[in-house]
Specification:
Strand order of the largest sheet: 1-2-3
Shape: elongated
Helix content: 40-55%
Distance between the termini: 17 Å
Radius of gyration: 17 Å
Structural class: alpha+beta
Order of helices and strands: HEHEHHE
Largest sheet: 3 strands, mixed
Number of strands: 3
Length: about 80
């Protein structure tokens, strides 16, 4: 997820690209460059993996009930 520290700090819901997956893609690019490909010839890739993180502690403090169907879809739930 885009900003895991901000979710733990109190943001209610976060949805964004997976940082570990983005780092993996960057590593693949570095490998291709080290093997001789020109950086300008490499395509720009969009993120392929996204993460949904829900902070139940914040939801409780705000008096918001998160639907069970949304909780089931979350990649991470902070309690």
């Amino acid at each position: 997820m885009g900003q895991p520290d901000t979710i733990a700090a109190g943001v209610l819901i976060g949805y964004g690209p997976s940082f570990p997956d983005s780092y993996r893609q960057a590593g693949v690019y570095v490998g291709r460059i080290l093997k001789g490909e020109k950086p300008g010839d490499l395509p720009v890739l969009q993120p392929t993996k996204f993460e949904l993180v829900i902070n139940l502690k914040t939801a409780k403090a705000l008096g918001i009930e998160i639907p069970p169907t949304l909780l089931a879809r979350a990649d991470e739930v902070i309690e």
